[in-house]
Amino acid sequence: MIYRTNTALTLIELCKSTISNEISLLAVWCLLRICRSAEVAQGLIKSNIVSVLLRQNAIGDMHLVSISVYCIGTLVQNDATADFLAAMDIIPFVVSHLRQSTESPRQSPDHICAGLYAVARIARSIKLAKALAKAGCVELIIHHLNTSTDPNILHWSARAVGCLMRPNSSDMAKILLDAGVAQGLARLPTVLSSENLQALGSLGFTVQRFSCAEWSGKIRQTLVEAGVVDSLLAALRTAAEEPCYDVHIELALAISLLGDVGGSAIRKEIVSAGGITILKSVANGNAEVAKACNMAITSVTGNIWSRNAGWFQPRQRQLWLITGMEAVRSINHRVLWYFDSYDIYDIYALFS
């Protein structure tokens, strides 16, 4: 309703005003709350909102810049929008903000999360992911994964890592592993309390992405040596006590993918670490969770035929739609891809 009555234009004018930073900040806040669809995002972009947001950096108020970066993230509703915004040089703006908020002596989790969120939203293709990496986002993300104890920062750091990878994106997988992402992911269950489990779901999401982006002996060895497999099971054990079904599903699907493409060594490690017992325990709850856990059990303990059969029964929302020879090749390798899970997560509470 606010968008259709052209109130958004008034809000954009308020963003331009020099009355006060507080008024500009609230106007940007209203605009990002409006932006819930590709249609609205396109309308706001046509109204020159991007240039207005980029100009906020000159004001020097970190709160205003952070919410502008967050608003840029919400504008990315599809691949075409991400490409268009990248052509407007938003990647240097976003990564620069993430670096500034990371290096600030008075770090604010809200400011850091805004940058991480925008990176995750923008990384909708291998080309854009490489552009983000070239701008220097990887070292910043890995720094937070390896050092932070803030649950929101860890959640968005792990989520951003996963979003930087796509099918056959072996270059990005190598860049991330060389930067030390495996160690950062492995530490997540050890620094999160049972009340802050969202980051564990992001751990599962990212392992899924690694499994499909590029699976080789080196990746397998790096993840295992860093303790990522043990961390997945520890995360599932921790999350099992809470009714966080989305987290349960993400972790179970990660184990399922590892069991399917990881080879006998990974499957033996999952079994010896008590993975099957944990999966059976978690499967006793929600029906959707049970499906994911049972699929993971089949992937780990079944033979090649039962693993294939199990893989073609996931929920429709988890299929990455592909065509032609790419589809044939993916089916042959049982590679399933996932829609961008970060689309269903909000960080609106950060600035409320």
Descriptive notes:
The protein is an all-alpha fold. α5 packs parallel to α8, α18 (245-261) runs parallel beside α21 (287-301) and α21 (287-301) runs antiparallel to α22. The two termini are 22 Å apart. It has 23 helices and no strands. Helices cover 71% and strands 0% of the residues. It has a domain at 1-122: Leucine-rich Repeat Variant, CATH 1.25.10.10. This is Armadillo-type protein.
Task: Give a short overview.
With 352 residues, this protein is mainly α. The chain contains 23 helices and no strands. It is elongated.
Name the descriptors:
Leucine-rich Repeat Variant, 23 helices, disordered C terminus, mainly alpha, 352 residues
- Morphology: elongated
Distance between the termini: 22 Å
Counting DSSP H or I runs of 4 or more residues, the number of helices is 23
The ordered H/E elements are HHHHHHHHHHHHHHHHHHHHHHH
Specify the helix fraction band: over 70%
Using the 3D structure, state the CATH architecture of the domain at 1-122.
Answer: Alpha Horseshoe
Organism: Lentinula raphanica
Protein name: Armadillo-type protein
